[in-house]
Design brief:
about 1400 residues; alpha/beta; 7-stranded mixed sheet; 43 helices; CFAP61; FAD/NAD-bd_sf; CFAP61_dimer; Cilia- and flagella-associated protein 61-like
Amino acid sequence: MSMNFRINDSHNIVNLIENGILSVCQLDVNGSIVGFLCAREYPLIPSVHPVAWEEYVWTKYKAVELNARNTMFLHLLCWNQIYGRECVDSMLESIFMHDPYVHHVAMVKCIGSRTILVPGQSRSEGSFRRVQAMERGIPGDQLPGLYVADRPEVCPRLRVRRAVEEDNDDIVPIIERYSTRLRELYGEFYISELISRHPESDRVLLVCEHKELAVGVMCLNTLINYEDLNESFELMPFAGLRKVDTLSIYHKYSAGDSAFSVSSAVSSGLLESASQFRRTSTESSAHYRGTKSKVTWLFGEDECINFPGEGEKELTHDVAGLGRDESEEADASFDVTSILDDDDDDELEFDIVNIATDLLKLPKYLSYDALGKGPAESFLKIIEGSGRHAKKETTYDINLKKDRVKTLAGSNNGLSDGTNYSGTPNAFLLELFAMHPDYDERHGFDMLEAAYELFPNRDYCIVCLPSNHVSFPLLEHFTLVAPRTTRLKFVNQTLYVAHVNSVRGNMSIRPGEAFDVPALHNLLDHAPRAQALLDLFDSTLTSRTLQSYIMLSENQPIGMVVLGPLEDGTTIRVQYDLEPEPVRPGTDGSVLASVISPVLEPHRRWFMRELLRRSQYSTLFWICRLFAKGEANPGRNLMSLADCMVPVHPRISVPNIFKNKILDKILKDVATPFALWIIERPLCSMPKVYVNNSIIVVGASRTGLAFLESLFMGPTAKYLTFSNVTLVSEHGLPTITECLKAADTCVPREGRYNDRYLKSVPFYFYVDVISAIMVGIDRKNKCIHLKGGGVKYYDELVLTCGHQFQHPDYLTESLYLAKKIQKGEPCHRILMDNIQYKPDRVAAPRDLPDNVMLVNSLFEANMRLRILMRTITDFKEKPFCLSEDNQVIVYGDCIEAYSCVAALLELGISPSMIVFVEPFPPEDSNALRVNCFNNETIDERVQANLESLGIRIYRRCYLASWRQVDNRVEALHFMSSVYAIRLPCFALFCYGLKAIDVNAFKAINECGLVYDGGLVVGQNFETNDPAIYGAGTFTRYSRRLYASERLHRYYCSEDVGEALAKLFLLKLDPFVTNTDLGNDGGDNSHFGSSLFSFKVQDSHGSITSKSSTGTWRKWQPVAKYESPIVQTATLPGPLYYMKVRKPGRELPMAVQMCLPKQGHTLITDKRGNYFRLHLNSLHCIDAVSCLSTKPFSSDTLQQVYGKHEAFFNKLLFRFQRGDIDDLYEFFVRPWMSAMYEDSFSDLLHSINAQSVSTVYNLLRPKYASPEEISKSRVESSCSITKTCGFGQSDSPSDITFRSVIDKFISNTSSQMIAAAKKCTNKPRECGQSAALKTPAIGFWKSIGGDRIVISHIAKYLLKHSSTNPHYATPKNEFI
């Protein structure tokens, strides 16, 4: 077996798994592997190039039925001899079930003397038939043998036929497994009555049977309301689901049809006629706007607008768009590759899930560095020339952001006209599909193929489902259609379309040739910048670096891809979460552009697989510099294959503290941030599943951004795509194209979401970003109301509003009443049972004067500072201009206020024109009198710096009122304990009360959600409405949980958002098994996916339908998060400040130091650079405070959190000895650079995961308690059934290095605790117990700890040597 498959050691198997198309393991009931196979897209014949295998097999073996689309080749097949053929057939069947388009699985046996893999086991390979090679002069038995397993022999299809009356008793139970509604409406014999009593009906019932028993049913209908569908969905690429009067150049699939050549079409003039049709239809829809912002805007009172309720929505699901008679079908078909016209508005409104073809443009510069020095520079200039005279736009201009909602409202006053299509109907509707629970739903593909035979004159099959319907395997063969922006019908409905060529056609791919140019002209007739793309294609014909490939369906072009080498691959791999170097040099490629017909989208991953086979690349990248300018600006990206690729996380930037020139080139900062996607061979065979639940996230807070990022870039991104996620925020994403340096200074940084990181994450490709304000929530109709009249429907609503700085008069009456009640005064409210009761209504928020600034994000900081600069210029000649008598006032007692002062100084405003008013101590006598830094030393230095700069300071003053003239504040009135102050005001930056936005508070209260000082949520983020979730600083736990000390505001917001995303993935992932749902969302720490089966559940995939009301009321502990709280800021001076602390409620420092077992505090203060480091009792770093006059890398210093001081070469011992006098210099020493990289955590994980089962068995009797030994013996005598993908057994093979150490520490610690009770001198800190050191050293030597650690470090250095040239090269004996 090893000789046939050329397997020498385990490294070959690992290489096969990493580079194979599909790897399958067969498990027994105990979870042990009893079989394995690895399949690739070409045979294992070293002398034959992977591209040429088809010609070789056709010539040598005459097996013309084998081609790249329907054949896979085994590169390894092994099994336990006990099981024999059953094991082999089971693995082969998994391949056929995984890919319904694969009809043959073959393998090549090169050793002529060993025709059987396992001697004496010929029956095991009984499913393979031998194909004899044809070679003149050489006997066939001496040539390599081709063994082919055919689908009918291994995985026969179920018999498909039309239903008869006798099938009623078999079909009704199958349908009732999903829904009982049909039986309740029509009785128990509705199937029989439909067949016998209504033979004239347009409905057709198909069944698939096994052993003369119906096990699946499919209901088809030709009665479709095409007009309503066209008004609600963008059907132009599908010709409105109608036939075209003019003959199309593309043939519909037919077994007997011959290939229809492009040259003949050109000569006969058919290309011109088809182009004329597309031109007419495109011009009629030129008014159509982008399909991404799916919001319904209402204006005034319109009695004709009636939104369906819940009952009407269900009725729409059962009978999708019925009620219109159709005429006879014609024989003509439509060119499905027609692409919509270009639209120059809404530059960033992309939809990577369903790429709206009217929004696509060829990128000017996608895969090359901004310097433009790549080998394909001459070819890229061709593309740049076509867009040189294009109109330049600043997509994120402030005015465009501010007026986006108004633009949408103005352009959608009425219903979208849509393109009116004429012609005979060309589609049939799939109304119902169900399978018996004992049979795989993937057999539905056989029924779908047969459905086209019932309607030979119709090319499209459509499915209309509720947006929260769970995805099932049949949908993998359909294309998701983009909805229109102004649809009033089919709300929260999704439409899928499948073309006959996609289901039954022949797919192929080949290199581009010169004769493809006429066909590409027709294909790209209405594509944006089509001429530039054609010029790029012409360049590939003569280029040595660029390659073009044509995608074919029935030998007709339906798409094109242009590939090129990836420039600066090492730099890209360092800056993103990727391996440090490729598998082989020169195997990293870049997708420059791609176009594919929408109806062939289900085959996109196969097309990518073929690109990897035909090119020299093993990894394909796509780079999109969405925010670039000049030559690097992509404008709009013509990329139809990005959905089958996987987005990559950017890494935290690490400075070159080693001062290595080579490392400077590797770590160079890319001029413009970009989003990155990749795809490798193993990903090309994974199914791509859409989750169409309408998820609305309100608020672009850190929690909301982390939720979105984890949703579409988490561990399920390889196979799961959320296609209907919307972010509603007043200013959209908190990032801008052109940012003032002072604006970046004005906003302290918390967490990882800075401007550069946001531009490196493809939010705009996966999320509908709506710049609007939520003003109401309609829980009954499940929609939110937006300011200006917009309505957005949801299946799940996620509120992550957070807290912002508010108007000084924020909810004055409500807050005053709350204070009175807290003091014990009676609440004079009318009870709800009183006839005079009226629900409370929150007053609308007050408008801010023009010169009062509230800054809550980087966008607002940039906007407010620009307004201030413009105001200074406009009022320069007026009496109330900026002067020492009319100053800029900064009011607040928080770090944001100090950063604002620093930003004003950065703008060039004189310190004498700035007034800083500090309301500290707080006016509330019960509040803590602790400064915002929680550090007296830092506070004293900041205050001293303010005074030295000459800024006028008022302390213990509180804003009482202001004097307003027109829309400007001319004077402010402050009150202190002894006097009143009146200050003239040119502009006011107010950092007073931080609370939830008034509009969000009004919407939450008036819709009936429980609000108790914050939105009340449970331990799984649920509110009292099962469809609404809340997370972030504005929430609080229900009082029944007794978790007032674990509120979200006390933890890292990114952790909270990621935990919420894990909950959504656990509930909405269709590959999660039923056993995982039993956790009821309480444990969100894992993800489950089985590659070969969908989970079985109800018809609606909403999170709410899977939550149990009983467990919701049960008390459960709330989550506790571990990431540190990080805050960095630039203070006046400038002074650079950073604070890292452990999560949880922060105590005043004076209180912390008085508590027992507080560890050690290390402080250095050299040359005015203050550094405070705190070690807990376990000698782990849990707090860092820095204040420096020189800039430092906060990303680097925050990496030290949580690490033991021994990581830093015995930091505590050396500090106490006096060797360290400046911690700034100590933490930037070159030898510490490895610890600051993201990959260092991978090294620690690999050490902890090292298998040490042999050592564990040796030491188990010594370090395990007698109870554990006896318990393990009982468990070992029982058979253990292990679920696939989850749970860990207690078998020795699962014992890791970390688990052995943890067992030793826990058992030894219990013994030490008992001994410590008798000891008077008890150890208080880590490492102070001599009795513990001795057995620990002996244990470490017994398991060979030094050998394990050194081996992993040596492998780590060798692996990362290319990206870190300063690393030492390890010796081979240590690897």
